[in-house]
Specification:
Elements (H helix, E strand, L loop, with lengths): L24 E8 L4 E7 H7 L5 E6 L13 H10 L6 H16 L3 E9 L2 E8 L5 E5 L5 H15 L4
Antiparallel strand pairs: 1-2, 1-3, 4-5, 5-6
């Protein structure tokens, strides 16, 4: 499996280069890079004027480096990110989506129903909790080390401990 490195918050707006002040709200986003998704941070002012093309985004704020605080990501944001990856065919994104599905299953937002083989690929059928809706997830048969690595990368992207 290729390494997929996502940078942490840069501390400044990628559009203007201006640094964020402690407590300042901004948009964190994933954008399509040359080979992978890359994180970019944008000030609210730049975001509203430029409307940068992004794959997925969330609103956050600049933490106080002297104060240790875990930022929380809503289940809705995780589910939205999961659904945005539904049509992807890139192996790294399929792996990322699978680990995200495991996290959502642990949070009881998705429930395993069954699996089937589609074109020699194992596909899990998951029910969206509280809805009469099912989603499919390719099982890439990752080992525990690969799952841990991808979980850590997700934690860096979302600034949470997964």
């Amino acid at each position: 499996m290729a390494d997929w490195e996502i940078s942490k918050a840069a501390g400044h707006c990628c559009g203007t280069g201006k640094p964020f002040e402690v407590g300042q709200e901004y948009y964190a986003a994933l954008v399509e890079g040359e080979q992978n998704l890359e994180r970019r941070d944008f000030s609210i002012e730049y975001w509203e004027q430029a409307r940068p093309k992004v794959y997925c985004f969330w609103k956050t704020h600049m933490p106080d480096e002297n104060r240790k605080k875990r930022l929380l990501v809503s289940d809705e944001m995780l589910m939205s990110f999961f659904e945005r990856l539904a049509e992807e065919t890139d192996v790294e994104k399929l792996n990322f989506r699978f680990v995200l599905a495991l996290i959502l299953m642990r949070k009881r937002k998705l429930k395993y129903e069954s699996s089937e083989n589609q074109n020699e690929t194992e596909v899990w059928i998951l029910r969206v909790t509280g809805e009469n809706r099912f989603v499919n997830v390719v099982n890439p048969h990752l080992n525990e080390e690969q799952i841990d690595e991808l979980s850590g990368q997700m934690g860096q992207i979302l600034q949470v401990d997964l």
